[in-house]
């Protein structure tokens, strides 16, 4: 994800990526791979240049460990690993860090459409929100789904998880960031119902949001192509990050 976003932004003359943070043991290899395009460091404290904002696309551990450090330093942060916010108390902790530093935390919609409408509908009150995630079996490899299903032997669509958005995001952190985003944007992590499906006929990562409330009804479906080197991640998720970054320097923001 990080590599895809970096390449997409490399030729944008309105932006300059100055520093990249990776685990300390990966600093040298990452520096060699970037070939001087940015300085690679192992912790926030190693960055001594002024920053306009930071972008997280490194996973849940980065959200809990690195993001608060930027916020308290007064650096705005765009977060991609929204599923991390399913942890009890983390949203409140990040908000407190942002207020302490006078910074702002932005959550990207990721691979799903309709988050803007869902968040708008919440202002008048929502009655129910449901999210259904459907991917090919390969998209669920390396997750808890393997403990419930023989992914290589599936002959028909199979539901392997039903529960809340908080539970889904915690159990499937690399696959269910969308579930957390839907929960946070709408009726809450514990009231949003989630169904996850392994479907051998699925050619794309399919997401569906169904919501009802005083605003009316919402039913939005997205079928996203995956990143070429990562079947767990929709290309739209990476593009959502690129859009959020470019909005930071755009004259007109959509």
From TrEMBL:
Domain Aspartate dehydrogenase, first and last residues per copy: 155-242
Pathway participation: Cofactor biosynthesis; NAD(+) biosynthesis; iminoaspartate from L-aspartate (dehydrogenase route): step 1/1
Pfam family, any one: Asp_DH_C
Domain Aspartate/homoserine dehydrogenase NAD-binding: 2-105
InterPro entries, A to Z: Asp/hSer_DH_NAD-bd, Asp_DH, Asp_DH_prok, L-Asp_DH, NAD(P)-bd_dom_sf
Catalytic function, reaction form: L-aspartate + NAD(+) + H2O = oxaloacetate + NH4(+) + NADH + H(+); L-aspartate + NADP(+) + H2O = oxaloacetate + NH4(+) + NADPH + H(+)
Binding site for NAD(+): 111, 177
Signal peptide segment: none
Enzyme Commission number(s): 1.4.1.21
One Gene Ontology term of the molecular function aspect: NADP binding
Enzyme class per UniProt: oxidoreductase
Active site: 207
PANTHER family, alphabetized: ASPARTATE DEHYDROGENASE DOMAIN-CONTAINING PROTEIN, L-ASPARTATE DEHYDROGENASE-RELATED
Function noted in UniProt: Specifically catalyzes the NAD or NADP-dependent dehydrogenation of L-aspartate to iminoaspartate.
Misc: The iminoaspartate product is unstable in aqueous solution and can decompose to oxaloacetate and ammonia.
Protein name: L-aspartate dehydrogenase
Organism per entry: Bordetella genomosp. 8
